[in-house]
Amino acid sequence: MKTQARTARRFLVKIVTAVGVLVAAASVTFFAQLMVPGDRATAILNEQTGRAQRWTPAQLAPVNHRFGFDRPLIVQYVSYVGGLFRGNLGTSYTQYKPVTQVIAAQLLPSLVLTVGALIAAWVLALAVILLTGRRGRFVTSLGSTWEALTASLPTYWVGVVLLVVFAVEFRIFPVIGGTSVMGTVLPVLTLAIPLAGFLGQVTRDEFDKVLEQPFITTARTRGMSETAVRLKHALRHSVLPAITLSGWALGALLSGAVIAENVFGRPGIGQVLVTAVNTRDVPTVSGIVLVVAGVYVVANLLVDLAYALVDPRLGAS
Amino acid sequence: MTRPRNLRLPASIAGVAGLLALSALTSGCSPSASAASGDTRVKGGTIVYGHEQEPPCLFGGWLQQAYIDRNILDSIVTEANDGSIKPWLATSWTVSGNGQVYTFTLKPGVKFTDGTPLDAQAVADNFYYWEKGGNSTAKVSMDPYFKSAKALDATHLQVTLTKPYLPFLTMISQAYFGIQSPTALKRGAKANCDDPIGSGAFKVKVWKHGQEVILVRNPNYTSWPATALHKGPAIVNEVDWKFLSDPVERYAALTTGAANVIYDIPTVDWKNAEANYQVTQYITPGKPVSVYMNTINGVFRDKLVRQAFAYGANRKAAAQAAFHGVIPYEGNPSVSRATPGYDAAVASAYAYNPAEANHLLDQAGWTKRNSAGYRIKNSKELDVMFAYPAGSVFTSEGATLLQILQQQWKQVGFNVKLIPETQAETFAGKFSTPTSYDAQPWYWTSPSAAILWIVWRPSTKANPNYSNSSFYNNEKLSTLIQHGNSAATAGAAARFYGQAQQILQDNAAAVGLYDQTSSIAVAKNLHDVWLEKSQGEPVFEDAYFTR
């Protein structure tokens, strides 16, 4: 009973911490955007007209009133945070609709893209490691060169080359991808290839170290095949750093997806975020930051879980 | 890492685009090109149009909104290619002797797509909607001339002006003045943002944000303009208006047949496009891309220094080089060559003349040079803080142009510091005060030389003009522009506007760079896609496919 209560309390603490992180993320974003030079009403009017000028108080007044900018800042903040607890992220300054609607419409394609890219990156990274790790000097250096090369490729360049080769030259995938399955392949690869290089680099070091461990020699002396040794023993130990990185990667992919979205004409919150930042659409930016922060929180919980599954030492403790 | 969605990068990816062009050549005829041989007209079908930027709402005062609005809303009148005004929702009109009262006779029986009758009261309501902030560009195009609009009966509308305003009809031919259903406007901003209701040839079926707007044919369309190429509802069933912000993707969409029409052909692909598609370039009337010079603060307070700046770089050759010869140089800083009343003689001033630039700078007292080669006066360097809206106005090719000019200005002794503005900074007005920049290039599209009034109206304390980004106040200029606006005939107006352009050029209140352009490339099996005259919006109601 006592342990159950302790587990429940620990769980509660985790939830409260997560909520705290989210509110802090929303608050920091809210104030950071207000500190940028220029006021919001000016930005809204300029954005509506495609101009870059000042406006008279008479022109600004209705905008200030309409969006509540004429209220004291603290009132605006309290009403924003209060809204968060009721699931209200505010109203977009540019699209005039609830931010929850703006984000909801774009969230699924983004999640498909980022989760797909993470999975694809893992598959690519592991395949390269298993095939080239400690396989003689030439093959090994081929693998590590490949990782260094792909890890350093700019995402935009990868996207454009994939587009030209596989959508224009070979016509395998559509140029305008949208959200179709075929149209998702190239954007996923665009994000996955550089990430795979990155994950591969950190995994390879561990993999090399693990293959030198006594328990690997023991396994081999028991007559285990090379493939089985690599899959069952070496890999399991060497993926831990990459798992840690994946929590970070998921959040980073989500907010950096805009490049892949742009090249392949794909909807997603990356594009919405960039547009919203450009137009000082404070509620939309804060809302997306909140979503990305939420993904980080969930991803890190999953990472903790994955650790326990992969590393038997953690399971025992 | 992240890039604004409307950032265009043709030059930096020239290598890849070259690859694309090559692949178009090696793969032989694209499907769209091979289909061009047939000439059997097809009824129906879907036009896939690859546009560039997605606006936050479908109706508004930004050109990106006008592009779509032209296809879903009808205006009172329209502008023909020769600049004359032709009937649209109004079949005829009369202007009172004093030029202040316009009486329009509206086409009877026209209905909005929500069933609301399009009568004189509906049009009058729209005038007040624009004036109350419904469309800021519409408002600024009529201020301070608009006085009132009222319905005389169901088909007669009377618009009264405070003063005669000759460009009035030209101004209201823009899509910013598209007429919306008053019933629909009452739904509120949110509904009107996603689905403006007009009487046009198409209506919005769905807007998939971040992807496309699907426009469907209005089967009951009766109110086509006099400039339409056919009478009747649209021939195609649907227009899929896709947002393809990446130039490589956009052109690839055309070459692979995934799109039938694309907007803004990347200049590196221009030759390939001309060989394989129907290419139309539109030179936008209004203020071209020209450099506002801060005339009240910093080094450009001195007219001689401004003139030296104009002489000091080969703007024509630089524009030619940076844009691969596709976008024309514009020497007239106040109106582009496509604007009625454009003065070509004014445009020829300040041809590249480094000797004259050096002479003027010596005369202005900037006689010595420091070790870096920049001129100094009273131990102050001849510094120019040159802010430019990167991405939204200046593509990477535009930035290349500025870098070429920067090197040439250095030769005559200017230290030009190029400051790229992010779009967020631009919109927030970071570079809008007299102390925030010395020079800043910008454009402003408008079908009439009345743009001179919008941009150069003197700023007073009571009525500041923040559009006057050179902070240049000149009473004589103001009077001339007002005479032009209120002139009795186009010829008289052109004379006044011409003198106004001369004053702006003589005083180097701005320096010309290049014309704002847009372009479309259309597959050879699609016909009669045209660009309307006032702002260059693509019009799809007459378009048809052939087999």
List keywords for this structure.
A: 317 residues; 79% helix; globular; B: 547 residues; alpha+beta; four-stranded antiparallel β-sheet; 19 helices; 26 strands
In a nutshell, what does this entry contain?
By secondary structure, chain A is mostly helical. Helices cover 79% and strands 0% of the residues of chain A. In chain B, strand 7 (146-153) and strand 8 (156-161) form a beta hairpin.
Give a topology summary.
The complex is a heterodimer of chains A (317) and B (547).
Chain A: H1 2-35, H2 40-49, H3 57-67, H4 73-85, H5 99-132, H6 137-151, H7 155-169, H8 181-211, H9 214-221, H10 226-238, H11 240-256, H12 258-263, H13 269-278, H14 282-310, H15 312-316
Helix pairs in contact in A: 1-14, 2-3, 5-6, 5-8, 5-11, 5-14, 6-8, 7-8, 8-10, 8-11, 11-14, 13-14
Chain B: H1 14-26, H2 31-34, E1 41-42, E2 46-51, H3 63-72, E3 77-79, E4 85-87, E5 90-95, E6 101-106, H4 120-134, H5 136-142, E7 146-153, E8 156-161, H6 168-171, H7 182-185, H8 189-194, E9 202-208, E10 212-217, E11 238-243, H9 247-255, E12 261-263, H10 270-276, E13 278-283, E14 286-293, H11 303-311, H12 315-322, H13 344-347, H14 354-363, E15 368-369, E16 375-377, E17 380-381, E18 383-389, H15 396-412, E19 415-421, H16 423-427, E20 439-445, H17 451-456, H18 475-485, H19 490-506, E21 510-514, E22 517-522, E23 526-527, E24 530-531, E25 538-539, E26 544-546
Helix pairs in contact in B: 11-14, 12-15, 18-19
